[in-house]
Design a protein that fits this description.
The complex is a heterodimer. Chain A contains 4 helices and 8 strands. Chain A is an alpha+beta fold. Chain A has a single domain (4-17, 29-143), classed as Alpha-Beta Complex (Aldehyde Oxidoreductase, domain 3), CATH 3.90.1170. In chain A, a hairpin with a 4-residue loop joins strand 7 and strand 8. In chain A, helix 2 (57-72) packs antiparallel against helix 3 and helix 3 packs across helix 4 (140-147). The two termini of chain A are 21 Å apart. Chain B has a single domain, classed as Beta-grasp domain (Ubiquitin-like (UB roll), Roll), CATH 3.10.20.30. In chain B, strands 2-1-5-3-4 form a 5-stranded mixed sheet. The chains are: A alpha+beta, B alpha+beta. At the A-B interface, strand 3, helix 2, helix 3 and strand 7 of A face loops of B.
Chain lengths: 151, 86
């Protein structure tokens, strides 16, 4: 059976507990995995970043990624929230929740979704230290992480 | 001739000085690479934005496409740097 998939791209913050509670009751779904990404201090002293995205293509790519995950694993729910706009160090930026009958599917699907989100979803980060703005460079390790899934 | 919408994102948008434009494409412009050649030759902004083609990624009607892809009947083309979300 196909997973219930809900994708949100929004400026507003999110609450993991509230998102978990918002999932419909499903006694057969014995496992839930959640990944929360936050804005990480990288030692360069930047204070905040601004996330730009490509409305339309972002949702389309996230739908493609979740459809692949849904084919590959047996999932009850997939929930994705990705924030845009200005975010400070420590702020939440992305949420992926996967729910399944057993834990293996939920764990693996969450990691798969994050790996593909990193390389395929059209978001761009520009960071500022208060005076200078710089665009964040993509990381080769993200491509390596995606490619190991062999899709 | 056909008309397409071309979108620019992140530092490519900044260098182009606009986020979107409508372009009429000559029949000689077949692939995304051809369109980049056209934009580079058109003005200084295009020359600067597409100086290093290795750093340019593209979307064709909101799907990822390599630069040697034929534009075909696509209506919306986007140029952007490698993505950095998540």
């Amino acid at each position: 059976m196909a997973a219930r998939i809900t994708i949100s791209v929004q400026e507003a913050d999110f609450d993991l507990g509230a998102e978990q509670k918002a999932l419909p009751p499903d006694p057969s779904a014995g496992a839930m995995a959640a990944f929360v990404g936050t804005v990480r201090a990288d030692g360069t002293g930047f204070e905040a970043l601004t996330l730009e995205h490509y409305p339309g293509m972002t949702e389309r790519q996230l739908e493609n990624i979740t459809a692949k995950a849904d084919t590959r694993w047996s999932l009850a729910d997939i929930r994705i929230i990705h924030r845009t706009g200005r975010l400070s160090v420590g702020d939440q930026i992305v949420l992926v929740i996967t729910r399944s009958r057993h834990r293996g599917d939920a764990f693996q699907a969450a990691e798969f979704i994050m790996d593909f989100l990193k390389t395929d979803a059209p978001f761009w980060k520009r960071q500022t230290d208060g005076t200078t703005d710089t665009w964040v460079d993509a990381r080769d390790s993200d491509t390596t992480a995606r490619d190991r899934w062999g899709e | 001739m056909r008309t397409v919408t071309v979108l620019y994102f992140a530092w490519i948008r900044e260098r182009m000085g606009c986020s979107e434009e409508r372009l009429s494409l000559d029949d000689e412009i077949v692939t995304l690479d051809d369109l980049i050649d056209h934009l580079k030759a058109r003005d200084e902004r295009g020359a600067e934005a597409f100086e290093n083609r290795m750093l340019v990624r593209a979307g064709l009607d909101q799907d990822h496409a390599s630069l040697d892809t034929a534009i075909g009947d696509a209506r919306e083309i986007a140029f952007f740097p490698p993505v950095t979300g998540g």
